[in-house]
């Protein structure tokens, strides 16, 4: 089915000037960019976005990293978009990410891991709504 998923290009990848390369990977895989904006997240924004991880030991470092510079946030649309985006990203820990995945190619560490992508339809819906109003999304399916 055609799905939408939320993608974030994290501060490390924005700083490396690989937004274009990452967009190109999405587009070549049939994932269309249907909404996008750059943002400098506040601590509150990042804590709210990652609220499910609040009790995890890595939460403070994760939030600190996500506010260390601007991020690029986009909605990707396409057939099987959630799974496809996760395949393009590779494993959360870049040391475990397969060759040819974004995290293998651009990430340095489990925190500075280049990209975020929603993990399931319910979280995709919540995460998209966290960053975009319905009017901001230009469906192309
Ligand atoms: P992301 O997909 O953005 O979701 C939560 C983030 O927490 C994850 O990517 C990692 O960047 C970061 N993180 C740091 N340590 C861990 C860990 N041990 N397990 C999972 N995520 C972690």
From TrEMBL:
Keyword presence, Transferase: yes
Cofactor(s) of this protein: Mg(2+)
Active site: 116
GO cellular component entries: cytoplasm
Enzyme Commission identifier(s): 2.7.4.6
Chemical reaction(s) catalysed: a ribonucleoside 5'-diphosphate + ATP = a ribonucleoside 5'-triphosphate + ADP; a 2'-deoxyribonucleoside 5'-diphosphate + ATP = a 2'-deoxyribonucleoside 5'-triphosphate + ADP
Binding residues for ATP: 10, 58, 86, 92, 103, 113
SUPFAM superfamilies: Nucleoside diphosphate kinase, NDK
GO biological process, one term: UTP biosynthetic process
Annotated signal sequence range: none
Location(s) in or outside the cell: Cytoplasm
Nuclease among keywords: no
Main localization (coarse): cytoplasm
Nucleoside diphosphate kinase-like domain boundaries: 2-139
Domain of life, per lineage: Bacteria
Keywords, ordered alphabetically: ATP-binding, Cytoplasm, Kinase, Magnesium, Metal-binding, Nucleotide metabolism, Nucleotide-binding, Phosphoprotein, Transferase
InterPro entries from the UniProt entry: NDK-like_dom, NDK-like_dom_sf, Nucleoside_diP_kinase, Nucleoside_diP_kinase_AS
GO molecular function: ATP binding; metal ion binding; nucleoside diphosphate kinase activity
Family: Belongs to the NDK family.
NCBIfam families cross-referenced by the UniProt entry: PRK00668.1 (NF001908)
Role according to the record: Major role in the synthesis of nucleoside triphosphates other than ATP. The ATP gamma phosphate is transferred to the NDP beta phosphate via a ping-pong mechanism, using a phosphorylated active-site intermediate.
PANTHER family the UniProt entry points to: NUCLEOSIDE DIPHOSPHATE KINASE
Complexes and interactors: Homotetramer.
Protein name as it appears in the record: Nucleoside diphosphate kinase
Lineage: Bacteria, Pseudomonadati, Pseudomonadota, Gammaproteobacteria, Chromatiales
